[in-house]
Amino acid sequence: MLGLENHLNVYHENKQGLPETLARGLAIYLNTTGVDENFRRSSGHTQVNATDLKMMKYPSRKALMALGEWARRCSEPTQKMIDEQLDNLCIEL
After folding, report:
1. What pLDDT shows up at residue 24?
2. In Å, how far are 4, 5 from 1, measured between CA atoms?
3. Dihedral, CA of residue 57, residue 59, residue 65 and residue 70, to nearest 10
4. Where are the domains of the chain?
5. DSSP of 42-76, one letter per residue?
6. 44: exposed, middle or buried (Cβ count in 10 Å: 0-12, 13-18, 19+)
7. Residues 82, 65: contact at Cβ < 8 Å?
8. What are the Cα distances from residue 22, in Å, to 5, 18, 37?
9. Chain segment 69-89, per-residue pLDDT in tens
10. For the segment 17-34, what is each residue's pLDDT rounded down to a tens digit?
11. Is there a contact between 22 and 68 (Cβ–Cβ < 8 Å)?
12. Spatial distance between the Cα atoms of 65 and 48, rounded to a whole number of angstroms
């Protein structure tokens, strides 16, 4: 017999779900190579908890929405495409 416990971190806005475009942008941002590398380097563990997520720096809402719009138009983005899109967005903003 094997028992597992999983915890789920949930992003919300005033205890409501996020708008789809914002959620997509957030998902893209959290999946960039830079976020992954910085998180792994600074967290010192494999578990992601709410405090870790709250302490992270995030792009502006406008930038996350722009990432979300791009993600909606892009059916299957590769890691390279995701990283390039964030770099391009940072230059534009």
Report:
1. 96
2. 10, 14
3. -110
4. 61-93
5. HH-SS---HHHHHHS----HHHHHHHHHHHHH-SS
6. exposed
7. no
8. 29, 6, 23
9. 999 999 899 999 999 999 888
10. 999 999 999 999 999 998
11. yes
12. 24
